[in-house]
Amino acid sequence: MKNYKIGIFALLTLVLTLESCIEHEIIPAPVPMVDLSCNFIGTVNGSVLELTENVSGYSGSATKNLNILPAPAISSAAYNFQMTSTSVQTSVKVVLGSVLWDASTSNSPDLASFNEFHTINTSPSYSTSGISGFEVTYKDASGINWTTKQNSVNPQSVTFTGILQESDTLGDYSKFTCNFNCYVYHQDVGTLDWDSLLIQDGVFKGWFVR
């Protein structure tokens, strides 16, 4: 009996020793990420168009156009958001600009300037390439781009709502819902005539990235 107890004690000692030698995996705490989602719905040339994230290969992406000039000139940044598909040519893109800043101090506008710009510019004017305002580009099913005009004779409007600034380890974002009505234009390369399409009740949910 004495030898039996000694054996049990030795076995337990061995088990405890082995457990102490096992390196336990340390699982890091999850990193909070900003919830970025997008969708578009509107009536284009009389037909309802809806682009839904993760349907028909659609997803959203945000980029920026930086026009960096040497001091003492002021540089500018315009922000783009678009929904495109891996299987369908139809897409919608909006541009909003521009934040002005001194590029000698940083390579892009700081977070405070980025946030202030998007909070203030809720009803921008239309502008070519979004240089000083808002621009819409619609690509049709044939891959033809139709773009708004800065000085369009037709009525056009835009309003940004639901603006929310959030940040995570990947970047700083300005989330928005954009409501617009406008004409978009395409010039025939052969005749040089301009054709137009009407976008009505466009609602675009997306984000800009600093």
Strand and helix map with partners:
Layout: H1 2-21, E1 39-44, E2 47-52, E3 58-67, E4 75-85, E5 91-101, H2 111-120, E6 134-139, E7 145-147, E8 157-168, E9 171-187, E10 194-209
Antiparallel strand pairs: 1-2, 1-10, 3-4, 4-5, 5-6, 6-7, 8-9, 9-10
Explain this structure to me?
It is built from two helices and ten strands; from the N terminus they run H-E-E-E-E-E-H-E-E-E-E-E. It has helices at residues 2-21, 111-120; strands spanning 39-44, 47-52, 58-67, 75-85, 91-101, 134-139, 145-147, 157-168, 171-187, 194-209. Strand 6 and strand 7 (145-147) form a beta hairpin. Residues 1-6 have low confidence and may be disordered.
Described by strand count, sense and barrel closure, the largest sheet is: 5 strands, antiparallel
Structural class: mainly beta
Mean pLDDT over the full residue set: 91
Global geometry: globular
Spatial gap, N to C terminus:
76 Å
Largest sheet: spatial strand order: 2-1-10-9-8
* Fraction of helical residues: 10-25%
In quaternary terms, these chains amount to: single chain
Q: How many discrete structural domains?
A: 1
Total strands: the figure is 10
Low-confidence runs of at least 5 consecutive residues: 1-6
